[in-house]
Structure formats: C-alpha cells, structure tokens
Write a structure and sequence with these properties.
290 residues, alpha+beta, 9-stranded mixed sheet, 4-stranded antiparallel sheet, binds N-oxalylglycine, binds manganese (II) ion
Amino acid sequence: MQDGVEVVPSGAALGADVVGVDLAAAIDPGTFRAIEDAWHQHLVLRFRGQRLDDDALAAFSRNFGDLDMAPTGRGGTPFNPARPEIAVLSNIVVDGRRMGSLGNDELVWHQDMTYNPVPPKASLLYGLEVPPHGGETHFYNLYRAFDALPEDLARRIHGLDCKHDATRSSNGELRAGYEASYSNEDRPGAVHPLVLRHPATGRLALCVGRRPGAWIVGYADADSDRLLDEIWDHIHSHAFTWSQEWQVGDLVIWDNRCTLHRRDRLDPATRRMMHRTQVRDLHGPFAGWN
Ligand code: OGA
Ligand code: MN
C-alpha cells in the first residue's frame, strides 16, 4: 500500500474518508486492494481534495471494473456524446441549454440504474462545482436495513422479486421513448430479488431500487403497495445513514448493491456540476436470498 494512505470511518452507519491518496496518479495493486477492502467494509468512500479530469475519473473508476454507459437523458442522448461513460449531473443552464441531468429536483432514495437487468456495482461521483449550501447527498446502509427487519416481515419477503421501473429517472422525469403510465405487469423495467446476497461480502441486503413505480412481481396492485410501503416504513424508521457535504474535489464511491442515496431539492440560485461513472457488475444479475 502507498505510504500514508489511511481510512477514517465516518462513525455513522456507513461511510469513510480515504486520505493520503492522489487518484489522478496510478494506483498500485496493494493500495487498490486496501481501498477495495475499505469500500466493502464501509460501503461509501470519500476522497477529498482530488483534481480529476474525465480521463482521470474514468481511469481510477476502471480499477473497479469496466464502465457502464451513463443513463440517457430526456433527449435520449448522453450530455457529452464524446464521453458516453460520463454522466453529467448539473442544475446549470447556459442560454436555455441544460448542462447536465436532474436539474434542481429532489431525488428520492434510490439505487442507480436498477431498472437494468445487471445494474452497476458502483457509482463514482465527483464534485467539480458545488453549492455553498444544500446539495448534500445522503446515503443509507441496506445491509443494516435487512439485519433490522422484524422477523415476520423478513419471512414474508423471503423469495419475492421486485420490478424496478425503467421509464422514469430518480426525479420522476419520464425517459425518452416511454409512455406516461403503465400497468404494473406492462411497465418496462428489470426484476431483482427483494433481498440480495452481495457477491463480495456474502452479506444480505434489501434491494428496493426506489419506491415510485416499484411492483412485487405477481402481487395484486394493492397488496404490492401495502407490502412495499411496509418495507419503506421500516427503512425510514432507522437512521442507517451518513450525509456527504460536498467540497470541490470530493470523489465519492458507493456500493450500489447495498446502499441507497438521495438528495433534497437544490437552491436554483446555486450552481452544482458533478461528473459520474458507473462500474459494470461482472457477477451478472443479483443473486437472491435462499
Ligand atoms: C447519482 C445521484 C445524487 C446527487 O449521481 O446517482 O443520485 O447528490 N446523485 O447528485
Ligand atoms: Mn443516483
């Protein structure tokens, strides 16, 4: 491991800072292994004071695996067609053109891109321009949510699958090419087990994507809504959280298989510009709890 690299846990239910590492430089295998171990243990890692262009962000991200393409925006194209693996999240508008996706909107608790059959295992979000107030990203530990399930609820969700809505973004915006509404059976999306076994840690985690548009496969609408509300009430009743207050140069990586994240609506008078990569999960579709 590179001399002076240190992992400092947040003290909350997840999250740690990794200090003493320059992500724009090549990472030696020993240091990378230490970073990956810390990531499996703490689920979200923050590296402060980085200076990353898109090449360096992509190069560091590739230590974790091949990159997935960024989700397409409202127009069905990436924000930077020359770099389709870089997602641009921003509320900045220049001459009426949006410089990134998701604008000032609130983002509800979600996992990234679970509407795909193989969702990314990791997302790496880098702060290029951050607001003086607001714009925190809140994270949630889904292992802890599973571990804290009341026995009766755990028994009832054992073996169930959930469909994750592909038609809308985490801000509720309709994606290009989809209808405004669907029945639960017809809604495009991907099906995953409600409880997954993490391929690296072997631990069980709730896998809920996000609440809007979710459906317990095979359930009548009302029964599905009732059970999902019960699961989400359980999630909300525990503060298994840690909040990232952004500084320019922060790089945050989260494990998309065992965490949720959200943010409040941004103050439209502030500017925020973030670049993100997402790492393909070579383990394939999520394995369930059996
Ligand atoms: C994301 C995301 C939250 C934020 O990058 O996937 O949801 O605070 N970002 O911008
Ligand atoms: Mn997200």
